[in-house]
Amino acid sequence: MCSISILKKIVFVILSFCVCIPQFIFAFNSDVTVSAIVNQNNSGASGSRIATGSVNLVTIVNFSGSAYPFSRVYILKDGEIVANTIADQSASFSVSLLGLSTDTYNFSIYSEDGNNRKSSTFSFSIYITEGTTVSIGNIFLSPTIDINKSQVKRGDSIVIFGQSIPRKEVLISIKSNEEYFFRVFSNEMGAYLYNLDTSILNIGKIQAKSKNTIDTQSSSYSTIVSFFVGDNSKVNNKTDCSILRGDLNCDNRVDLVDFSIMAFWYKKINPPQKIDLNNDGKINLVDFSIMAFHWTG
Amino acid sequence: MKKQYKKIYIITIIFILTLFINNKVFATTLDLVPSKKTVGIGEQFYVDLMISSQEESVNTISGSINYPINNVSFLRAEDGKSMVDLWVEKPKDQGGKINFSGLMTSGFNGVIDPFNKNNKLPGLIIRLVFESEEKGKVDFSTSSFSLNLNDGDGTEIKAPDTSMYINIAGFIDRTKYENIKNGTPKLEAYVTRDPSIYNNKYILIFNAIDKETGIKNVKIKEGRRDWHEIESPYLLKDQSRHSAITLQAMNYSGAGVIVNIDKMPYKLDMIHYVIGFILLIIIIIFSFRIIRKYVKNK
Q: What is the least distance, in Å, from the CA of A157 to any CA of chain B?
């Protein structure tokens, strides 16, 4: 009797573990839903067959989720923009891609608010089979984020703002020597703004990022913006391309041109400072990795 | 009896933690997968480098694949189905060692199988095609593979080395490996310039993709110059931009695509008009004089 009880407990512990592991594995996109069905009418949507008599397979990939009211949402396939759409007033968006052949595809999705600020990119690789409809839903894009000063005098305030889904809580993380969290609500257009009193922060470089939360679900963090706390204040100058890391030619995109510029300087001495994204005096794969993280296509 | 429970709990927890820690350290792993475990002499085969990543997203990869030059010869690297979409260093054979580094702009943390969501699939990094030459047990291995996390900071992680072997049997087999697919390459190209490279001179930036066999080469014809193979970014020979540019990308199955880039139209500004006007006046004066002389002589 006793040994059965012990066995039960062991089974319970192992089962708990087994339940926990998959949640951990898919923690990155635990809220995103993926579903697939085989299309029944695979003789072609219009009922047509191609000349050889083979079946014209209909393949559909649907993307849906939340961005910001009236923001533009971009879908990238293997690093190239293949579709874009405008989110509705409630920030919902949906896009469909048709005609894909059986293959593995790398998809990335990001949104751009009215001031060309971008969310962080949500990426995944997926195996698509011809003749199926695959739906990737509940994609919850991060808010955008910006600051009004690149340097702030300690004790003065700095404004952190951006756009998110409307009327929801935005969590702002401020990383000084320790990490501080502040909560603010977005308005009906999704705009949020927080006046941060810098007297609590240490002198030096500070990083800020934000994310949305709805009930138990939360978006990924936004891109990171940095500012300095020092002896004086400087207005944030957006013309220096510092908002979008990796945008080396200042065209508000991180794409093939930027990659080529960086590739030219790969392993060369004395690269220009704007190309050396991690400021270590050399161009290596770390710089390419930072560029890839901010890739817009 | 309580002590017995305690022991069992502790052992179970240690067992679980060990599993967990091991998974965490090697969250991203590489595998070498051959097309055949046994081949004949003279037979072509391939070795795929596969990446598996479940818990973390990576966006760069660099390293080497080693092979024995006495037993096999390296023919080519096919990147058509690769997770890498931009090569920083294309796969290059250095006599028994194939080095490369590349970028996965979407990041990679496993391929979702929509019909089996709990089991993420590995992704292909590169397919290396070889031809067997001499009988024996042939070892292939990876070395010095490092990856960077798709975390915005480029945090570097190491992938544990992996190896596998195939047997080259004594029989002769001249079977060729051919990736016969009817894909056509895609080629995008821009002429641009930037102060940070080639002193702001005109450069050609391009990216050629072939989702089946991979790109064999990209060639350029600039004006009347001969065709020649180039890499991006390419410094244009004619900086006036008055030469027509034709680019051609070929894949390994022999299909190609051609892209024409328009030359810059001649732009006439005020100085050109003034010079033209002066020349016209001179020609008229000379013509007038010649005609007058001709008439006089008559």
A: 27
